[in-house]
Design goal:
With 372 residues, the protein is mainly beta. The protein has strands at residues 3-10, 16-22, 31-38, 46-47, 51-57, 63-70, 78-87, 89-96, 107-113, 126-127, 134-144, 150-152, 158-164, 171-181, 184-185, 191-192, 198-206, 216-219, 223-227, 237-240, 243-244, 246-251, 254-258, 268-275, 280-288, 290-292, 298-299, 302-303, 310-316, 321-328, 339-340, 349-356, 361-368, 370-371. The chain has 3 domains: 3-206, no CATH class; 216-288, Sandwich (Immunoglobulin-like), CATH 2.60.40; 290-371, Immunoglobulin-like (Sandwich). It is built from no helices and 34 strands. The radius of gyration is 33 Å and the shape is elongated. The mean pLDDT is 85.
C-alpha cells in the first residue's frame, strides 16, 4: 500500500485566518495529499508550497479543499492554510509513495449534500482519466452538524475520521482510501449518526510500478536454474529472444536451462520463454556476452576477404587457454565480426591469435575482454 505516515489537524473552537497544519514525514519523490474541511465558504484557498487540486463549497456554506505536494529534498513539516476569511478547520495529510509524480493526472469528482438526503455523505462515482490502471482511490466527506461525527468509511476502504465538537460549529472530516485497478469506482457512503450539510469527493491517483530489474542475470553459454510456475518436471520448450536453448535437468519447479544459442552476439535484456505444452511463462534475463570486438585480417596490407577457415585461440595472462574456435569467417572487408569468448571476465587481459591455414597468415595481439 503506497499510503505511509499521516497527520491530522483540528482547530477546535479557534476560528482564525491562517491555520498551521502539521505534515507527515516524506522522502524525496513522495507526494503529500492534504485535505482541508472548513465551516465557511472559501475563496482562493492556499497551503504553503502545495498545488490546489480542487475546492468546493456546499450549499450550506461548508467547504472542502484538496491539495497535493511532490516532496523535495528539503523536508516540510507544516503548511499554512488560508482561505480568505476566519474559519474553523479540520485537516488530514497523507504521505504517498509510488504514485505518479505528474499531479495533473489526478482525477476527481465532487458532490454536495444539503440537509439529510439518503444516502448521506456519499462520495460520487468517478471515471479516471488514465484508463484501466492501478489507482490509489481516495474518498472524502466534510460536513457540519454531523452528530458525533462519522463512525465508518466506505466499504473496503481504510478510513481516518475526525470530529470537531466545538459548541459553535460541530463538524466532521472523513477521508478513506483503497488500492484498486479499475477505471471507474463508486466508493459508497460514509456512515454518521445524523445528517447534515456535506461536501464529498472522490480522487483517483495513478500509481507507478516500482523499478525492477531482470529476473535473472546470466552469461552467454552458462547454465541457469530457472524456477517456474508451470508443470513440475514438465518443461518441453525453451527459447531466449526466440532462439532455442537446451533444457537440462528438471526437479519439480526448477529447470536447468543451458543458454547455448549461437545467434545472440550483443549483451542486453532478453525474454526467456519456457513452455510445458499447455502454457508458457516468460522471464527477463540480463544476458551478458563477453568477448572480442571485430578485427580486420590483412596480408601484406590487403584484406583477407570471405575466409571460412579462421581459427581463434584466446589465452589468459598465465597462458591458460580460455577458448579455441575454428571455422570462423571474414566478410568482404576482411572483418571477423564480434567474437564471444567462452571464459574470462570483462577487463581480463588476454592474448589473442587469429590464424587462417589457407591464407597462411595470422595475427597475435594482447587486449582485454569486453562486454559486447
Amino acid at each position: 500500500m503506497p499510503v505511509g505516515a499521516f497527520t491530522s489537524y483540528n482547530s477546535g473552537a479557534s476560528s482564525v485566518l491562517t491555520h498551521t497544519i502539521p505534515l507527515p514525514s516524506a522522502d524525496e519523490g513522495d507526494a503529500i495529499l492534504l485535505v482541508v474541511g472548513c465551516d465557511t465558504t472559501i475563496s482562493s484557498p492556499t497551503a504553503t508550497n502545495f498545488t490546489l487540486i480542487y475546492d468546493v463549497s456546499t450549499s450550506g456554506g461548508r467547504s472542502t479543499a484538496v491539495f497535493a505536494l511532490l516532496a523535495g529534498s528539503t523536508a516540510q513539516s507544516s503548511a499554512d492554510f488560508s482561505a480568505g476569511n476566519d474559519n474553523f478547520v479540520i485537516a488530514h495529510a497523507y504521505t504517498l509513495s509510488g504514485v505518479d509524480p505528474d499531479l495533473s493526472k489526478i482525477s476527481f469528482a465532487t458532490s454536495n449534500g444539503n440537509g439529510f438526503e439518503s444516502p448521506l455523505f456519499n462520495p460520487p462515482s468517478l471515471t479516471a482519466s488514465q484508463g484501466n490502471v492501478e489507482y490509489l482511490w481516495f474518498a472524502g466527506s466534510s460536513s457540519v452538524n454531523a452528530g458525533a461525527g462519522y463512525t465508518e468509511g466506505p466499504t473496503n476502504y481504510t478510513a481516518l475520521l475526525t470530529h470537531n465538537a466545538n459548541s459553535t460549529d460541530p463538524a466532521s472530516l472523513g477521508t478513506a482510501y483503497r488500492l484498486l485497478t479499475a477505471e471507474t469506482e463508486d466508493p459508497g457512503p460514509f456512515t454518521s449518526l445524523t445528517g447534515g450539510n456535506s461536501g464529498t469527493f472522490t480522487l483517483a491517483i495513478p500509481t507507478v510500478a516500482a523499478a525492477t530489474g531482470p529476473d535473472y542475470t546470466a552469461r552467454k553459454g552458462s547454465t541457469e536454474t530457472i524456477t517456474h510456475a508451470l508443470t513440475a518436471d514438465g518443461i518441453t520448450t525453451a527459447t531466449l529472444n526466440g532462439e532455442t536453448v537446451t533444457i537440462g535437468t528438471q526437479s519439480g519447479q526448477d529447470a536447468d536451462i543451458a543458454l547455448d544459442e549461437t545467434a545472440i552476439t550483443t549483451s542486453g535484456e532478453y525474454d526467456l520463454v519456457l513452455g510445458d505444452g499447455v502454457d508458457t511463462e516468460t522471464f527477463t534475463v540480463q544476458y551478458n556476452v563477453v568477448g572480442l570486438p571485430s578485427n580486420t585480417l590483412l596480408k601484406d596490407g590487403a584484406v583477407l576477404a570471405s575466409l571460412t577457415d579462421v581459427k581463434l585461440t584466446v589465452l589468459d595472462a598465465s597462458g591458460t587457454r580460455l577458448d579455441r574456435q575454428t571455422g570462423l569467417t571474414t566478410d568482404a572487408s576482411g572483418l571477423t565480426g564480434v567474437t564471444p569468448v567462452a571464459a574470462g571476465a570483462v577487463d581480463d587481459p588476454v592474448e589473442v591469435s587469429f590464424f587462417s591455414p589457407g591464407s597462411e597468415v595470422g595475427i597475435v595481439y594482447e587486449t582485454t575482454l569486453g562486454l559486447l
